[in-house]
From TrEMBL:
This is Pseudouridine synthase. Belongs to the pseudouridine synthase RluA family. PANTHER family: MITOCHONDRIAL RNA PSEUDOURIDINE SYNTHASE, RIBOSOMAL LARGE SUBUNIT PSEUDOURIDINE SYNTHASE D. GO terms for molecular function: catalytic activity, acting on RNA; pseudouridine synthase activity; RNA binding.
């Protein structure tokens, strides 16, 4: 989005600005919104309904033609959260006007559910917002299992959520994980290309089977341990429990993963899986981003015990 990238100094939280230059002169407002700013039809309909699309501070027709120097401004109103604030520690890895990226601790559910109505990451984020006198609707871009630690992205407005979700679908977000698995792998590097699904809708476990969804995981051994290995994994697809299912499928379940056959004594009380690195393009600025979350202490202790 050339207009947004070239006008970063004009960008403020909750607003998108597109400055019309000679290249875009003569285009209709709707062409700027859809083709240049890449807004979804759903978001545009909502903005139109709330009268939050302005040109030079005024509401104009969608078919109006733009002139050089016009300023198109999209205002994204704050939306409230219905979650109860709770003083739960969070580890902020990166934050700006559009994004909050956290290193989630293991054992924390991401979003309130019937079984976990409070004590979740969402409750912690609402408390964090209140301490900073901020307000934005919590929009999780990615999710992690309760017992998986690591990076979680939260979009602070619908535009950022829309654009990052597109990047996810187009495989433009690189997600790298670190895991400690059972046994010595036969090869240092490999790819697991095996469909994953849930044959029994009443069962939460997934498995590799012919009727599943295409699923691809790349792995590389980082360190060989005593009857175990530290592996780095790159997800090409993002199926539920993908890494856990794939590693179990090739005979190297994640240590501590009771659901998929990785329970080992009392060395660790959860699956040894950590979302370590995220690489993506920042939707507002177009700048390539890389964020990294430090390996949690329980996994470091596990590696030390098995070395």
């Amino acid at each position: 989005m050339k207009g947004l990238k070239n006008n970063q100094e004009q960008q403020i939280a909750g607003r998108l600005v597109f400055q019309i230059d000679k290249e875009h002169e003569g285009l209709e407002l709707k062409e700027i919104l859809y083709d240049q700013m890449k807004l979804s039809s759903r978001l545009v309909r909502k903005l139109k309904r709330t009268k939050n699309i302005l040109v030079n501070g005024n509401k104009i027709a969608f078919h109006a033609k733009m002139r050089k120097g016009d300023r198109v401004e999209v205002i994204m109103e704050e939306e409230s959260n219905q979650f109860e604030p709770q003083d739960i520690p969070i580890d902020v890895v990166y934050e700006d006007m559009d994004l909050l990226i956290l290193n989630k601790q293991p054992g924390l559910v991401v979003h309130p559910t019937k079984g976990h109505p409070i004590g979740t990451l969402a409750n912690a984020i609402v408390y964090y917002m209140q301490t900073r006198k901020e307000s934005f609707k919590i929009r999780f871009v990615n999710r992690l299992d309760r017992d998986t630690s690591g990076l979680i992205m939260i979009a602070k407005n619908p535009y950022i959520q829309q654009e990052l979700s597109k990047q996810m679908i187009d495989h433009q977000v690189e997600k790298r994980y670190l895991a400690v698995v059972k046994g010595a792998l036969a090869t240092e590097k490999g790819t697991i290309d095996a469909p994953i699904g849930r044959p029994d809708p009443e069962d939460i476990t997934r498995m590799v089977f012919e009727g599943g969804q295409p699923s691809v995981t790349h792995y590389e051994v980082v360190e060989q341990l005593r009857d175990a290995a530290v592996v780095r994994l790159l997800l090409e697809t993002g199926r539920t429990h993908q890494i856990r299912v794939h590693m179990s499928h090739i005979g190297h379940p994640i240590i501590g993963d009771e659901l998929y056959g990785g329970k080992v004594d009392t060395l660790i009380d959860r699956q040894a899986l950590h979302a370590e690195i995220l690489r993506f393009t920042h939707p507002r600025t177009g700048v390539p981003m890389e964020v990294k979350a430090n390996i949690p202490q329980d996994m470091l202790d596990l590696i030390s015990k098995l070395s």
